[in-house]
Each structure stands twice: as C-alpha cells, then as structure tokens.
C-alpha cells in the first residue's frame, strides 16, 4: 500500500480524499493556488505545495507543476479528484511514465471513454444503444445548423471534452443552434483547452440515471447500483439520490450489466460512471462515461456501505476487489443536495465573499440519526447526516473556481424518510456572509411532484421557468413563523425586564398582547394580533395564540444564536432567527422550510402608529446597469452615445468559471460607462448609466 499520496485538486473533494487516506494510514500532500493558501484542504493535509496564481490555468491545470510536487514530496501516487486534470489522458500517461501511480483509470481507458465522440463510436461498435446524432467534430456554426436540421429539433450541442454543464446547450431552432455552437466552443476552449463540438438528438422528458462501476487490474468489474440525477438546472445537477424512484429491478439489472460490459471493453480500472438517458418507458441510451469519481458518489456509499475513494486507492495499488456483484448490498435511501454559493432570488448568480457564519447541521436535528460529519469516508448507516465540504467559518469563497460550498447527504430507511431528514438538515444549515441555494433546495424537496418521484431533467425549467421567487416556497403553516417571532420577542423582553438598576415606574414591561407586522414588498404589510400566555423561563415554554390557533412553543436556545431548536405542539423544529438586515435593520427574520418571514414585533399602540407611517420607495435604478453579482468585468461591447436595442449585450461578467451576459431589457442610449474592463465588481456596482 502507498505511504504518501498527492491530491491534485482543491475544495471538498480534496478534503474527502484526505479523510479516507487518514483512515488508511496514508500521508497526504495538498497542492494549492495563491487564492487557496488558507483553504481547508491545505490545513488538513500533512504537506502542502504552492502551484501558482489563482487562475486554474496557471495552477491546478499545470501538469508539470503537479508532477514536480509529487517528486519533491516523495508522493508515490496521485488522486486527481474530479474536474481539472482528472479526465486528461496525457496527464494520466505522464504520471505512469514518471512512475507515479494514477488513482484512476489507465490513460487508454480515459482516451477511449473520456472523449465523448470517441466513446459514442465505441459504444456503437459494441452494439450499445446510443442516441441518434452527429458524432464527429463540427467545424462551423453554419454546419451545426445543417446537422441539427437533419437530426430534427430539439438537439443537444455538446463539447467533446465537456463536463459539469460546461460547453453544453439545447437548441430548439436554427438561431439557438447557431449561437449555441459558438458558445459551446468558447466555453470548451476556455475550460478544457479542446473546442471540438458534436450534436445529438435531445430526448424530451428524459431521466438522467447513472450507473457506478468499479473495476480492478485483474479483470473484475462490478456495478454499484444507480443514482438518479434528473433534478438539474442548466444541465448541472442539484439533487441526486440513490436508488432511483423510477426504474424497475429489471431495468436496473440491464443497465448495470451494460455498464459493466462497456467498462470491460476498455479494460477499465478504478471507479467510473456510465451515464444513461432513460425514456418514460424505461428504454435507455448510453450518454457518456465519466472516467473519474463523481461529485455525487456519497449517495452510493450510503446505500452500499463502501468507501469509493478507498476502493480507488486499493485498485491503484494493485489489489483485487474484495467482493463480487452479488455481495453488494442496497440498503435504504440516500439523498444529496449540492449547497452552492449562488443567490436563487437573483437568478442564481454567483455569490462570492467571506463566510461570516458557517454552521453545518448537527445530527441531533434529525431524530434518530447519527452524524457522519468529519468522517466523510464512513457510510452505510441509516439516518446518517453527512457533510462533505472544503470551507470553514471565516474562510473565503473565491471567484476563480466553482460555486460549491458543501454537499449535504442524508441516509434514511426509505425515500420519504430521507426527504424528511433532508428538510430538517437544510433548516439547520447556517450560512451567512454570502448567499446560498438552500431556500431553493427546500422548495424542490417540498414540491409535490418531487415527493412522488414524478420528474425528469426538465423539472426545474418547467416549474421555475420565470426564475425562483419567495412565493415558490409556500409554508404549510405560515402562522407558526408569526408565533415564533412573538415568542422570541417576548423572551427578549423577559430578559430585559430582569436587568437590575431600572428606575421605578420606568422599567421594561411585557404585556400579553403584541402585534407582529409581517413586512411585505412595496409597503404591503400584514398585521397579526397575537396573544401570549405565561412565559416559563426555566423550561423555555409559552403558549402563543395567533389567528385562532394556539402554538405551544418550547425552546431553550439562547437569544442571539441564529439556529433555534425546540418543539411546537410537541413536534420538533429547527429554524433560523436573527435581528436586522441591510435593508430592514430593526426587523426580525425567521427562516424555516425555505420560507423567510421579516417582521416587526410591536406593542399594540406602536403598531397603530406604524400603520400611519408613509412608505419610502427605493431609489429609481431603471436607468442604470448594476452588477447583479461579484465578478470580473471581461467585456463592455457598447460605447458612450450608442443606441442599444432590447436584447443586445451590454456587459459580460465572469465568475466561478462561467460567463454571465447582461443584456438590455429595453431600447436605450448609453450616457456613461462607470466600470472598466478587468475591474472586479461588487454586487449592485454601477456599470452603465443610460439617458
């Protein structure tokens, strides 16, 4: 077995590999860019080597620097993680030539299956069912339109070396095919250094289901069941689960056997994933093979009890698989939510900056669960709550890499149990300083069609076509949030009343009646009359009556703590409570099950006066182009005095490896340009002023 391995990656996957290596008694070497000098994976590893500047093309994508780091530290093996150089045939070959064990497949397997065009040709030769399409590189957008017409719209335009949603577009007409081809080539060239693009038929209402395979150097290959990955936004996975709620045992077996046959055809060694698109009648087609560890591998680990990173290391060291196909269990149900640094209420734009508060959910938030946090390699335990992450409180989310903060995984007895546990875990995940997609994840988990398993890859596009709004997360009992606000306010008043030294007749008092002012947009507030029972400070209990309903709330959470736990009418809850925001510094904010309530809790007379207060409208920004996110301004294709039509490009901002194009919403004339190309923008910074 290896004594020391180097992890040629960053973030949560680097931390994940380090956790397994530590369990196996293997020393680890981290590599890092200047932007990651204080990153968690650097701290966890036994050694760390600086690669270079922040951009990945100058650090994590430079093979020579990584090979040199292996030699300098004496690392015998290298784990590439996912992304970056993990599916680079030349890098894998170079490791082999330099005598460094590559903890992944051999270079010839990557060459055969990592290239999407080559892999589809190989699958056709092996008589594997594939999607109709044009599998050779396409040289121009005009040719792309011709091919798309021949195949028949809709079509999927894909970069041959793509992955993670990069270099992929769906086109429903000639214009979309023409524009999509150019965008795919540009993204592929920038992200992967390979601008080849191909086209295939887009299967409507498809399921995205993948089979995890594992092979060794002795000719053994097994499949570790399937993962359901159909909940996607812009072709990037949002929620993954294992097993799939859709396919039958017969389909599962057929897909698994086909995946194994394909892996054996290329003498596959290590962990890999064969992806299929599955139709409504459970007919399935080979899509591609990812010759690496997948982001969503934890759900497979939960239901099988196997540590995939450990298996990859053992295979790379020449060991045989320690089990056969019929010895692989399938226990319970696992769900993973990707927690990303993005603002769902601003069209999911990237959100970078400092993690002022970072508190992952504890196991006791989920009844009967055990925590796997801090032991990412441990799996297969019912009720487990697991957090795989590469960040920490006070750390920075840089603009140079992907947006993932953490992966939140739960393991339940069945799918309903897993969904309930995930909703509770999301309630207990505290992130401040940047925005996250937790409210969106909560909305997805509560959606009736997700709960019943009735969805496909178009689910988010269909149900959130106009973006995501707070109204998309209706609470099943909104008055509970009102009652909770009153409870917290009364608790604060109770504490204030107990402060010594108050002047007689002028001390803090608390009555039995309050008004919770639910603050709405444009001054549309709702006033809730609330009656309070006696407060038992020793046990943290009080009855709150609102809207004719009584809420018996019990909580001993200290004032000032964001995460509040307790019970209401005998049922446990966890919610997030805090005072003040940038726009409403005096308001109280209650968040629960993806819904947020902003409210003022007032005495009756104060509420009467509040109703008389005039509404102050926000400043008019209709003649400004504001940066919707932090990022790098890479292009301003307009000039002062230029007439711009609705739909034309105004600016291009780059953040987290994605280009974000800002377009004019109406015809206008450019009066002033206030930002320069190459400038790092902050949220709401002025870019252009219009006449």
From TrEMBL:
<comment type="pathway">
    <text>Metabolic intermediate metabolism; propanoyl-CoA degradation; succinyl-CoA from propanoyl-CoA: step 1/3.</text>
</comment>
<dbReference type="Pfam" id="PF02786">
    <property type="entry name" value="CPSase_L_D2"/>
</dbReference>
<dbReference type="InterPro" id="IPR001882">
    <property type="entry name" value="Biotin_BS"/>
</dbReference>
<keyword id="KW-0460">Magnesium</keyword>
<keyword id="KW-0092">Biotin</keyword>
<dbReference type="InterPro" id="IPR000089">
    <property type="entry name" value="Biotin_lipoyl"/>
</dbReference>
<dbReference type="InterPro" id="IPR041265">
    <property type="entry name" value="PCC_BT"/>
</dbReference>
<dbReference type="Pfam" id="PF00364">
    <property type="entry name" value="Biotin_lipoyl"/>
</dbReference>
<keyword id="KW-0464">Manganese</keyword>
<dbReference type="InterPro" id="IPR005482">
    <property type="entry name" value="Biotin_COase_C"/>
</dbReference>
<dbReference type="InterPro" id="IPR011761">
    <property type="entry name" value="ATP-grasp"/>
</dbReference>
<feature type="domain" description="ATP-grasp">
    <location>
        <begin position="120"/>
        <end position="317"/>
    </location>
</feature>
<feature type="domain" description="Lipoyl-binding">
    <location>
        <begin position="616"/>
        <end position="691"/>
    </location>
</feature>
<dbReference type="Pfam" id="PF02785">
    <property type="entry name" value="Biotin_carb_C"/>
</dbReference>
<protein>
    <recommendedName>
        <fullName>propionyl-CoA carboxylase</fullName>
        <ecNumber>6.4.1.3</ecNumber>
    </recommendedName>
</protein>
<keyword id="KW-0442">Lipid degradation</keyword>
<dbReference type="InterPro" id="IPR005479">
    <property type="entry name" value="CPAse_ATP-bd"/>
</dbReference>
<keyword id="KW-0547">Nucleotide-binding</keyword>
<dbReference type="InterPro" id="IPR011054">
    <property type="entry name" value="Rudment_hybrid_motif"/>
</dbReference>
<keyword id="KW-0436">Ligase</keyword>
<dbReference type="InterPro" id="IPR050856">
    <property type="entry name" value="Biotin_carboxylase_complex"/>
</dbReference>
<dbReference type="InterPro" id="IPR005481">
    <property type="entry name" value="BC-like_N"/>
</dbReference>
<dbReference type="InterPro" id="IPR011764">
    <property type="entry name" value="Biotin_carboxylation_dom"/>
</dbReference>
<dbReference type="Pfam" id="PF00289">
    <property type="entry name" value="Biotin_carb_N"/>
</dbReference>
<keyword id="KW-0479">Metal-binding</keyword>
<dbReference type="Pfam" id="PF18140">
    <property type="entry name" value="PCC_BT"/>
</dbReference>
<keyword id="KW-0067">ATP-binding</keyword>
<dbReference type="InterPro" id="IPR011053">
    <property type="entry name" value="Single_hybrid_motif"/>
</dbReference>
<feature type="domain" description="Biotin carboxylation">
    <location>
        <begin position="1"/>
        <end position="465"/>
    </location>
</feature>
<dbReference type="GO" id="GO:0004658">
    <property type="term" value="F:propionyl-CoA carboxylase activity"/>
</dbReference>
<keyword id="KW-0443">Lipid metabolism</keyword>
<dbReference type="InterPro" id="IPR016185">
    <property type="entry name" value="PreATP-grasp_dom_sf"/>
</dbReference>
């Amino acid at each position: 077995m290896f004594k020391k391995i180097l992890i040629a990656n960053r973030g949560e996957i680097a931390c994940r590999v380090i956790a397994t290596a530590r369990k196996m008694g293997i020393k680890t070497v981290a590599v890092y860019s200047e932007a990651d000098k204080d990153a968690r994976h650097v701290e966890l590893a036994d050694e760390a080597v600086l690669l270079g500047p922040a951009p990945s093309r100058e650090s994590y994508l430079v093979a020579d620097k990584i090979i040199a780091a292996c030699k300098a530290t004496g690392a015998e093996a290298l784990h590439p993680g996912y992304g970056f150089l993990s599916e680079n045939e030349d890098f894998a070959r170079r490791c082999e030539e330099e005598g460094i064990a590559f903890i992944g497949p051999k270079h010839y397997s990557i060459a055969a299956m990592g290239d999407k065009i080559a892999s589809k040709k190989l699958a056709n030769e092996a008589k594997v069912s594939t999607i109709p399409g044009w599998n050779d590189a396409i040289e121009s957008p005009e040719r792309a339109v011709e091919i798309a017409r021949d195949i028949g719209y809709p079509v999927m335009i894909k970069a041959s070396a793509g992955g993670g949603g990069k270099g992929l577009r769906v086109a429903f007409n000639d214009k979309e095919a023409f524009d999509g081809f150019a965008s795919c080539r540009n993204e592929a060239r920038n992200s992967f250094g390979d601008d080849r693009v191909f086209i295939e038929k887009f299967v409507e209402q498809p399921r995205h289901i993948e089979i995890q395979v594992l092979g060794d150097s002795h000719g053994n290959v097994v499949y570790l069941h399937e993962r359901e990955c159909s909940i996607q936004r812009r072709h990037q996975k949002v929620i993954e689960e294992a097993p799939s709620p859709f396919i039958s045992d017969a389909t599962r077996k057929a897909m698994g056997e086909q995946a194994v046959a394909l892996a054996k055809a290329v003498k596959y060694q290590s962990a890999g994933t064969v992806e299929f698109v599955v139709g409504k009648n459970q007919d399935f087609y080979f899509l591609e093979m990812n010759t690496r560890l997948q982001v969503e591998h934890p759900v497979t680990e939960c239901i099988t009890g196997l540590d995939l990173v450990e298996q990859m290391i053992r295979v790379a060291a020449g060991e045989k698989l320690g089990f056969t196909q019929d010895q692989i269990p399938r226990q319970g149900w696992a769900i993973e939510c990707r927690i990303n640094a993005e603002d769902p209420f601003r069209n999911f734009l990237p959100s970078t900056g400092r993690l002022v508060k970072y508190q992952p959910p504890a196991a006791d938030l989920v009844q009967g669960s055990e925590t796997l946090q801090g032991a990412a390699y441990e799996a297969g335990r019912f009720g487990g709550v697991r957090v795989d992450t590469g960040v920490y409180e006070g750390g920075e989310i840089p603009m140079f890499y992907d947006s993932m903060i953490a992966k939140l995984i739960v393991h339940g007895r069945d799918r309903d149990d897993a969904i309930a546990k995930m909703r509770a875990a999301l309630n207990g995940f505290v992130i401040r300083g940047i925005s996250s997609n937790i409210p969106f994840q909560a909305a997805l988990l509560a959606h009736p069609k997700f709960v019943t398993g009735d969805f496909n890859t178009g689910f988010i596009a269909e149900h959130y076509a106009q973006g995501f709004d707070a109204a998309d997360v209706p609470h099943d009992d909104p008055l509970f949030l009102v009652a909770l606000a009153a409870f917290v306010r009364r608790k604060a008043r109770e504490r204030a009343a107990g402060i010594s030294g108050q002047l007689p007749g002028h001390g803090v008092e608390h009555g039995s009646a309050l008004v919770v002012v639910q603050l709405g947009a444009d001054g549309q507030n709702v006033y809730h009359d609330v009656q309070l029972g006696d407060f038992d400070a020793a046990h943290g209990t009080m009855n709150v009556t609102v809207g004719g309903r009584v809420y018996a709330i019990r909580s001993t959470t200290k004032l000032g703590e964001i995460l509040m736990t307790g019970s209401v009418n005998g049922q446990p809850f966890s919610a997030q409570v805090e005072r003040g925001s940038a726009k409403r510094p005096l308001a109280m904010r209650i968040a629960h099950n993806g819904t947020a309530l902003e409210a003022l809790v007032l005495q009756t007379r104060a509420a009467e006066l509040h109703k008389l207060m005039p509404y102050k409208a926000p400043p008019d920004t209709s003649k400004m182009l504001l940066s919707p996110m932090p990022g790098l301004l890479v292009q301003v294709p307009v000039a002062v005095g230029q007439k711009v039509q609705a739909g034309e490009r105004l600016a291009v901002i780059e953040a987290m490896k994605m280009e974000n194009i800002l377009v004019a919403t109406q015809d206008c004339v450019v009066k002033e340009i206030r930002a320069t190309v190459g400038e790092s923008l902050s949220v709401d910074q002025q870019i252009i002023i219009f006449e």
